[in-house]
């Protein structure tokens, strides 16, 4: 799991907006930290989906 998260972090950038993934042997991933980050990502996703809908509507209204 650590390897997958570390690879994802380096390949796509940091997903945790409020912290960093632990580095080295001493860093540990807890279920709570992963779950909290998942909740934050879902909230961010909802906000972005709403913004996309607003922009699509604005674009539609401008092109009519």
Quickly list its features:
0% strand; single chain; 64 residues; mainly alpha
Number of helices: 2
How many DSSP E strands? 0
Query: Helix-strand pattern, N to C?
Result: HH
The overall average pLDDT, rounded, is 75
How many domains is the backbone divided into?
A: 1
Estimated share of beta-strand residues: under 5%
Shape: elongated
| SS-based class | mainly alpha
The end-to-end span amounts to: 50 Å
User: Major sheet, described briefly?
Assistant: none
Unreliable stretches (pLDDT < 50, length at least 5) are none
Q: Which percent bin holds the helix content?
A: 55-70%
Integer-rounded radius of gyration: 17 Å
Describe the 3D structure.
The structure is a single chain. This protein has 64 residues and is mostly helical. It has one domain. Helix content is 69%, strand content 0%. It contains two helices and no strands. The longest helix is centred in the last third of the chain and has 33 residues. It is elongated, with a radius of gyration of 17 Å. The mean pLDDT is 75.
């Amino acid at each position: 799991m650590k390897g997958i998260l570390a690879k994802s972090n380096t390949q796509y950038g940091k997903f945790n907006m409020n912290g960093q993934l632990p580095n080295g042997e001493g860093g540990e991933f807890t279920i709570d930290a992963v779950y909290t980050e998942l909740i934050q990502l879902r909230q961010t996703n909802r906000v972005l989906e709403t913004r996309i809908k607003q922009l699509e509507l604005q674009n539609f209204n401008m092109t009519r």
